[in-house]
Each structure stands twice: as C-alpha cells, then as structure tokens.
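FORM 12-B: Structure-to-Sequence Request
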C-alpha cells in the first residue's frame, strides 16, 4: 500500500498536470507577444535585434522568405546539439515556444504595422519582443537559442558572454549596412530595450538585489564596496581545495550600482564569481 501523498497519487498527478498546463500557457503567451513585437512593429520598419531572432530577420529580408521558417531552422539545431546539457522539460517547452513563435510570425505577416513612426515602433517592438522572451523563460522555455549556440561554439579563453556580444554586434552592424545608419540606430534602441525587457517577467519589477561575491580577494573588494559605493558587505570564509582561504561577500545592491560593483570585483579578481539572489 502506497503512503498518503505519494508522488503518483491522484492529487499529485492533478497538481503536476495543472502546473504543466500553466507552463504551456505561459510559454505560448510569451511566444505570441514576441511574434507581435516582431511582425507588427519591428519587421515592417526594417528594425533588427540581436540573437537568433536578429539573424533570422536578416535572412528573411535578404531572401524574401518568411521569418517564421528561419526562426525555427536556426534555433532548433542548437537545441538538439545541446540536448545532453539541458533537461527534457526545458527542451519540450522550448520547442513548443519556437513552434508558436514561428507560426505566430507567419500568421501576422500579412497584417500592416500598428504604427508608422519608426522610433515608437523600435520602443514598442523591443518591449513586446523582450517581454515575450522573458515570459517564455519565466515558465521554463526559450524563444532564442543564442546562449546554447555560444556554449556549443565556445573555444579557447573566449567566454560564451563574449561570443554572444560579438555575435549581436555583428548582426547589428550587418543590419546597418543593409538598411542604413538611421535604421541601425533604431535597431540598437530596440535591442537594448528588448534586452532589458527580458528581465521584467523573469525578475519582476525589482530595484535592488542580493549580490553574492566569491573571491580570494574578498577583503579588498569589501573595502572598495564600502569606500566607493557605501555598501556594507557581510562575509564568511571557507577553505579552498588548494588550501587558500576564500570568502563569500553578501550585500544589497540596486540596479544603478550593478555596473560599478562588477567593475570593482573585476579590478581585484578577474575570476571572481558574482551571482544574484532574488
């Protein structure tokens, strides 16, 4: 006889099914919101963002083929190549999101843009696209596999973050050559806004974060945080494998101080680890 509340009890099965249904709806809603941002705001004005979405947009403009086709073809291969490093539910929800994202852009393609002003299109399109991608991430899926592609293509001392940065800059520069300087400016605006908008569904409207800093030079970092940012960082020490003493600093930091905090940590320890707790 199985104990009450076991994993496969009807109550738990129903709970898991309802949780999966909510995640599906969240990913689908995010994909639809992102497709609206692309097809009804950005694409009609020749505004291109970064990531696989931007690469797909460039190919769609060059070949005059549907954007949805490239969104699916460029994203799915890297998801398959990284299948051993990602869990099964994430892969399923990502494929679902990409299908809805691709089909959504195809269905919305015949419709005219919602607004004619390019700056407004860049702002609203970037916001809609970023919010859609963030919403899909919040519910366990993804609409852009640029991060998986960077992990697969990483080599030498170049980190995935630098690969993504170089990749995005290349896309924006290519868009500038194709559409002109003015469109490049609008593309940069849309990209920055989309990048920031992704964080809203994932993190919520937060203005401060708990920052954890792991470094061998924690005392110097702690002193500079107090000196330059007036941040009081508590710390605890633990022995490392090589016998050196390491420490973890913990402090509260607002959005405006994040860049300077990272700079202080990198000045003292290029290998220091910075994580955020929400």
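FORM 12-B RESPONSE
SEQUENCE OUT:
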């Amino acid at each position: 006889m199985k104990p009450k509340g076991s994993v496969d009890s009807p109550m738990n099965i129903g709970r898991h099914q309802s949780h999966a249904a909510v995640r599906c709806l969240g990913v689908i809603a995010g994909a639809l919101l992102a497709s609206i941002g692309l097809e009804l705001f950005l694409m009609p004005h020749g505004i291109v963002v970064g990531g696989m979405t931007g690469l797909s947009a460039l190919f769609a403009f060059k070949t005059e083929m549907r954007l949805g086709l490239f969104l699916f073809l460029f994203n799915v291969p890297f998801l398959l190549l990284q299948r051993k490093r990602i869990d099964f539910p994430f892969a399923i929800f990502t494929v679902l999101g990409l299908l809805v994202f691709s089909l959504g852009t195809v269905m919305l393609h015949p419709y005219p843009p919602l607004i004619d002003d390019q700056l407004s299109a860049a702002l609203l399109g970037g916001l809609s696209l970023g919010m859609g991608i963030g919403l899909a991430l919040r519910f366990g899926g993804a609409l852009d596999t640029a991060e998986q592609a960077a992990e697969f293509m990483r080599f030498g001392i170049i980190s995935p973050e630098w690969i993504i940065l170089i990749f995005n800059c290349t896309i924006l520069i290519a868009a500038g050559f194709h559409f002109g300087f003015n469109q490049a400016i609008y593309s940069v605006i849309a990209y920055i806004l989309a990048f920031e908008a992704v964080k809203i569904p994932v993190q919520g409207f937060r203005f401060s974060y708990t920052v954890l800093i792991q470094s061998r030079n924690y005392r110097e970092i702690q002193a500079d945080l107090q000196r330059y940012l007036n941040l009081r960082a508590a710390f605890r020490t633990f022995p490392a494998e090589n016998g050196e003493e390491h420490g973890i600093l913990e402090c509260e930091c607002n959005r405006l101080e994040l860049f300077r905090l990272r700079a202080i940590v990198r000045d003292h320890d290029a290998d220091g680890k910075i994580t955020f707790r929400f």
